[in-house]
Amino acid sequence: MERDVDGCMQTEQSLPPAQFDGQASSLSCTLFLDHVGEVALTFNSDGLSWKLVEPLDNDDSTCLGIKSKVATEIKFSDVYAVELIDYGLIHGSNISNARKCLSCHDFEIYRFTVHGFQRSKTLPSLRVLVAYTFGHKDLQTCQMWVNQINASLALEQGRPKNLLVFVHPRSGKGNGCKTWDSVASIFSRAKVKTKVIVTQKAGQALMMMASIGIKELISYDGVIAVGGDGFFNEILNGFLLSRHKAPYPPTPSVIGTSSQNNEQQSPLLPSTSYDSYGVPNINQDSEFSLPNEHFRFGIIPAGSTDAIVMCTTGTRDPITSTFHIVLGKRVCLDVAQVVRWKIKSTSKVEPFVRYAASFAGYGFYGDVITESEKYRWMGPKRYDYAGTRVFLKHKSYQAEIAYLEVKSEEAKSIPERGNLGGRKRPFWSPKKSEKVVCRVNCEVCNTTTPCSHPGETKWSRSKGSFLSIGAAVIACRNDRAPDGLVVDAHLSDGLMHLILIKDCSHALYLWHLTQLARKGGNPFDFKFVEHHKTTAFTFTSSGNESVWNLDGELFQAHQLSAQVFRGLVSLFASGPEV
Ligand SMILES: Nc1ncnc2c1ncn2[C@@H]1O[C@H](COP(=O)(O)OP(=O)(O)OP(=O)(O)O)[C@@H](O)[C@H]1O
Fold first, then answer.
1. Among 10, 11, 359, 497, which is most buried by a count of CB atoms within 10 Å?
2. What start and end residues bound the annotated signal peptide (predicted)?
């Protein structure tokens, strides 16, 4: 190793960029780091590291009397761009306890900036932007660093190069375009091409996704929704409706009538075949295979609820979502296929398919969404207003549900909330069962089978008067329910959580809702609440008209069936760091 005239220590410098990756290869050079001072910058196989040429008295810097660690490295996996910038100012050190103040003054020099993300100090899932500007008197040296860093970034796997972006301008508080503008420069700096479509009306993104040709579709690495859950649902449906070829779930009439046994063995299902784990078999479209590892969906949150973003990135932040997209993260997501058989009791049977990525709800949930649509002008507050109005009405609905019961190892060892295996339960119990929450590298999602007892599936039934019926595909965390509707629901375990709220007093229902709204609450520990893990269910209303809520969108259905497809789509995300 020898020092060259410009202060660079080089080894194997003659290696071309692509080979500049071995443990033996390293490049070290003295540069000026903006606002820090003179540093020895080292190029390592996995990133850059630097240390002050004149070390500090201790590892901390002090700014306005507040101590903070001085950054000393960035991994290539967190870098999204490097840019050579013009000859210009490098600011002197603002580290107050630097031993000497050789580099305390501003001066002009050639510069390059390394752009990346770092974990926020306050929230583990949150990412913030960082930019390190280094300076050197020699332009060639700066250019060499830029080339080497670019060569390493090119080796990073799975990063998108071309994306289709849909922006909903009126989403949430009407900030869809502003939200996109706040992150668009990150995409261009990262050299990710984007085709941006700002929607003009509801349904436009669905139509465009449904009609896009295979050639154009495969030219994209994914599609991004800048909006809320409803907007993402629209894009997802446009994508799946024409490409996902799977038999329908069984109709309520196939499962049988209420006069049959309450717990019967699974009948022969003419429409869907299920494997021995209770998972529906998929008949794939040969043009675009599903699940597709490469093609991913991204959501940049701008909606009123943003539950899908909360559950997949752990926060509700456009920069964090952009981090997951430009760095090419990937997580699988279960999707529920909902087939409506009849709109009203008097309608003829006409199957109509919709997909839901987070939640399908009836009764209270359907009424809240119907009511809230009247107050869309209120923005996100409409849900609180509509929720209060619907709660005060305290309506219940006669309906019949049949569900495919799935027993899992976990379900056997841990009593379910609302399902204590025949044991007598107080009407409310403060004890909370241990639950496995879905997080980054989730073991439950990464296991190959959704349940441990193949063949142990049976159809069970529940008939009566319900305040609400909910099927959660994921935890559905949101501002109103910080733990989600189901704290231990997973992104891709192949299961839905069916939550049946039987008719009860107004006070008890309020108690249940209060538990949902509380972090660490026990919303299922009530006699009137049933919680079942399932892969498929059917529903028939006893009334004439009934409204469901699919991912926050209205869906009128008198009779429907639903089944979940494990990991049907991939998302630019890695799961919450909770
Ligand atoms: N340009 C548009 N004008 C009106 N509605 C639109 C437009 N583009 C899309 N939509 C529809 O608006 C509905 C709501 O959108 P979105 O989900 O983004 O907002 P939100 O309801 O405020 O948020 P959330 O679903 O998170 O509660 C979706 O069904 C979407 O299809």
1. 359
2. none
3 state DSSP class of 228: coil
Cβ of 200 less than 6 Å from ligand 1: yes
Kindly state if the Cβ of 234 falls inside 6 Å of ligand 1: yes
Q: What is the pTM of this model?
A: 0.84
**Least confident interval from 125-134, 260-269, 280-289, 374-383:** 260-269
CATH of domain 2-155: 2.30.29.30
Q: Where are the domains of the chain?
A: 2-155, 160-246+282-329, 336-566
Q: Domain 160-246+282-329 is classified in which CATH homologous superfamily?
A: Probable inorganic polyphosphate/atp-NAD kinase; domain 1 (3.40.50.10330)
Instruction: Please tell me the distance between residue 557's alpha carbon and the centre of ligand 1 in angstroms.
Output: 21
CATH numeric code, 336-566: 2.60.200.40
552 ligand 1 Cβ < 6 A: yes
Q: Confidence band (pLDDT; 50, 70, 90) for 60? A: low
415 lines ligand 1 (CB under 6 A): no
What separation in Å is there between the alpha carbon of 230 and the centre of ligand 1?
6
Positions of E strands within 37-142: 37-43, 47-52, 60-63, 66-69, 73-75, 79-90, 107-119, 127-136
- Measured by CA distance, the residue closest to atom 3 of ligand 1 is 201
The string of pLDDT tens digits covering residues 149-206 is 999 999 999 999 999 999 999 998 899 999 999 999 999 999 999 999 999 999 999 9
Cα distances (angstroms) measured from residue 44 to each of 47, 75, 86, 159, 491: 5, 9, 26, 21, 35
- Which listed residue (34, 78, 221, 229) is catalytic? 229
> Which one of 231, 233, 234 would you pick to mutate in the ligand 1 pocket, going by the greatest count of ligand atoms within 8 A of its CB?
231
